[in-house]
Amino acid sequence: xxxxxxxxxxxxGLAVGAAGCVDSFTSLDGVSYGxxxxxxxxxxxxxxxxxxxxxxxxxxxxxxxxxxxxxVSYTFPHRFWRVFNRDGGYEAEQFGVESDxxxxxxxxxxxxETGVVLPVSSVDIxxxxxNNVDERETVYAMLSQRMGFHYGDNYHLDGDDTYTVDIxxxxxxxxxxxxxxxxxxDPQTVTIDLDYSEATRNELTYETYEDRQGEPGAxxxxxxxxxxxxxxxxxxxxxxxxxxxxGLADDIRYAAAVLTADRFGDAPYLAVTAATRYNELVIPSxxxxxxxxxxxxxxxxxxxxxxxxxxPELGFHYGTPVPDATGEETATVDxxxxxxxxxxxxxxxxxxxxxxxxxx
Length: 360
What we know:
Elements: E1 13-14, E2 52-54, E3 56-63, E4 68-75, E5 80-86, E6 89-95, E7 103-111, E8 123-129, E9 133-138, E10 140-144, E11 148-155, E12 161-169, E13 175-176, E14 188-196, H1 198-202, E15 206-208, E16 225-226, E17 229-230, E18 242-249, E19 252-259, E20 269-276, E21 287-293, E22 299-311, E23 315-321, E24 330-337, E25 342-343, E26 357-358
């Protein structure tokens, strides 16, 4: 696991309640690292209620020259899962809390005007301060039931101090439409001065869910605000144009439409959204292919690759031009690569089946 040396800001916490609290940290020296309950023994191959949630402390916020809002928050260090391709199959591998982890850092990035999250960039965090901390690392794109899409990782701290943090958002890899065309194409860096207090971290609370943990379902996303601005969790948006239907498979909810607005070009545009079954949070980093079949059973387009895209109205989605589409076709979606995004507890066992989904 890549080591991270970084800071965290101490400010007002985003409370999630203290019922069923787990003991908080007492010291970085000799502490029993991590305060998480044991995982549910028989987790379903689906989205499920996690064992607990953690209070978060908000850190700081800044704006890029390109109109992106960037916020930083933190909580206790905790386990998460990354996806790997091994022996021809995909699986989630748990990354636990290590002895020098002090916090889990989370960065939210979104377009300030439209609230569209940016799930298609690399994000680096460089921290300077403390006892000669001066390090840059790349954090992981993540899905959380409470935070939705964000970037994060566990980090080492070096005591209480004010740290200078440079957050660099890499150029987006997604196709962009409308007012997003020509934006987000260059790396953007913001600097946030953040105070970290071990005492503030120690006061963060847990809430456990003994009565629901391991059952199919999901917690509601939290309402988050910083500096008077609401932070979006990345809920999927409704598609304009001619709807082709919806479908549900492997706890992913799909919707598709054919759009002919000028911003999508001369050809009709096939747009597909992929979201979590519960709360409809965007799922990035998938490989998707779409097929449109006319009333005679002939393929108007067969297994066309659907590329990640950003649009001020549609938000994040997958799409491709289809010159002969009319919106009267039957649509199917194939998962060519399961979501590569890292997962918080409750998502790590889902999204690994790859059925063909016919929308209706």
